[in-house]
Amino acid sequence: MLGSAWALPQAGSVEAAMPLAKEQGRDIMLEFTGKEWCPPCIHLRTKILETAEFEQAVGDKYVLVEVVFPRLPAAVAAIPEEQRNANEKLLAHHRIETGLPTVLLLDAEGYPYAQVAGARRTTAEYLKALEAAAAVREVRDAAFEKALGLQGLERAAALAEGLNAIPENCRDKYPDVVNEINALDPQNTLGYARVLTRYANYRAQENQLKEILERSRGHFSASDLETAAAELTRYLATPELEPELAQVAWRALGDTYAFQRRYKDVYAAYKKAYEAAPDSRLAPRLLDAVQHYERNILPAIQRGEL
Question: For labelling, which of 23, 35, 87, 234 has a CA lying 20 to 30 Å from the CA of 261?
C-alpha cells in the first residue's frame, strides 16, 4: 500500500482517472508493477514514489493508476482473476516490452505519450527521467498545434512530427491522426501506412509462433525435430515478419539444430537471429552465443573434433 500521507491521487483504471485528471489539470501515470516480488518495482515504490521528495515534485501533476502483476500466492488471491487478465491485456495493448516496472504517461484524454522503464538509484534521478518523459508531450503538442495552420503534405508532416516524438508503441493509439496522415500522404513518404495494422499483425504472428513452439515443446525424436525445423522455416518466410519475432524463430531453429548436432547450422541460425533485431533485449545473449561459436565451436569443427 501507498504511504498514508501520500497525496498523489489514485484511480482504479485509466477511464476512472481521466475525469479527475481533466478536472485538476493532471496527466496520468500508468504504473506496470510487480510490487510484491520484483526488486526494482519494490525499490521504485518504497524508495522513490512514496518519498516526500517525489510528492513535493509531482504531487499536483499526476493521477496514479496501478497495474499489478502478482506472483506470491497471497497477492494473487487478493486480485480477482478477471482483473489479472485485464491487466495482462492492458500490458499487451500498450506493447510494454521493457519489463517491470514501467511507467507510461498519458494525457487527460487517455493518449499515451512517453514512458519511463525501470527504476533509478535515487528519487532525484527518477524525477529527472520523469521530467524528460513529460517534456515529450510539449513536443507533441507543439507539432500538432503547428499542423492546425497547414494543409496537404505539410500538415501531414507536422502531424507526423508530433507522433515521431512519442515512443513507437504509442503511435497506434492515435488512429485519427494516423488516418489523416495517410490520407494526406498517399505515397507513404512519411512511413505511416502500417502504423495501425502493425500491432494486429504482430499479435497474429506472435500467436502463430507460440503455437509452433508449444507443439514442439518436449519432443526430441529425429522426426519431431525435423517437423519443428520445417515449421519454423515456413514461419520465417512469413511476409513482413516482425524483426523481434523473426529473432525468436531463428533462435528456436538454432536450438532445434543443436539437438541434431548440426553445429554449423546452429551458428548460422543464431547469427541470423542476432541480425534480425540487434537492439532487442535478447540480442546480447545471442551475440555471446555467436561469438562463442566463432571462438570455440567452428575451430573445433575444422579440427575434426566435432
Answer: 234
